[in-house]
Amino acid sequence: MLNVGVVSLGCDKNRVDSEIILGKLKNKYSMVQNPEEADIIIVNTCGFIQSAKAESINTILEMAELKKDRCKLLVVTGCLSARYGNELLKTLPEVDIMLGVNNYDILMDIIDKFFKSEERIILNDYSDSNINFGERILTTNKSTAYIRIAEGCDNNCTYCVIPKIRGKYRSRKIEDILSEAKNLCENGIRELILIAQDTTYYGKDIYNENSLSDLLHELSNIEKLKWIRVLYCYPEEITIALIDEMKTNEKICHYLDIPLQHISNRILKSMGRKSTKQRIEQLMQYIKYEIPDIVIRTSLIVGFPGESEEDVEELKDFLKRYRIQNVGVFKYSNEEGAASSNMKNQIPFKIKEQREKEIMMLQSKISLNLNKAYVGKIMEVLIEGKNNDYYFGRNEYMIPEVDGKVLIRSKENLEFGKFYKVKILKSLNYDLIGDVEHELS
Among 133, 141, 181, 348, which residue's CB has the most CB atoms within a 10 Å radius? Predict the structure, then answer.
């Protein structure tokens, strides 16, 4: 039996695709974590922005070096190959198979075909009706899993090419999501993280209305499920019903990921965003009034074409007034095929870099001050691992691999994947330090 290793790059939506790939191949091949032990290497790429594309190319080249030893077959799939498959096949002769994002069902047949003919293969069949699904081999910790509720996007922001790669928005049926969720929970999952390019648009294409609140309510009836978390909630689609469900449903974490991208009306309009500064501020006030302990994460883009110093100051003022807990700042990436790539007044890289630095410095102070409020409180923490003297885990206000951690010193052995009551003793810029009070059931 040949060994297969998958290198997954990019977002958690890509992670789910990689888990599906592993699930489809597991009956015929052995799975290994170390690519050096693999006969077949699959690189699942990201092609969203320039830095992600560079990382994908470098990883492909790194994996190609392993063909000098054990590796017999190098497969490249994902967003980068969907965008540039023909070009990559010409410039990267080490790659044997080049796939897009909708070919995972026939991946095993394609691999068999290559071993029989040893002819390089490129395939990027595309269909707006496809949604990758199926049995998965999870790559998260033993208690957490991502679950994709929709594929594609209809927003057409001017800086983004995802609709051209992933297609139109396609919601999964509630019963299919519930079936997958129940199966995950039967196999030890206690936390589900809902993802899509835009989770708050869920249901509008198949149920003719925003149905995320209904889905959350149904998921909360799964007995073994403890935490439900929602990411990528576009501000214009956040409904009163959704906030009410979060407020009253004890299984839904008081955590919202809302990708605002900017606050200047002029820049928002140029980005093709549907929100305005006034609507965003009203939404923030409403959410914080209804759920006082809510933690919000957002992503911001600096250096968008035509962005002025006044626009940046407006963004800083917004962060100071609304004190968002977690903020990711990205330098605008001029993407081929995106409408913004042809806009005038492109911002020089050094200016984008300086604006990113300024906002992150400001945000670091805001996060530290907000974290101080947790000192002395007792919180439920999911233990995920141990590093030297400290166990580490997350409370309901943290998502994996992105936000901070709760660091815990304990004389007793703590079990990974279990929840403990932890008293917070100290706060850092992003992390918290505490002691275990007792284990939860």
Answer: 181
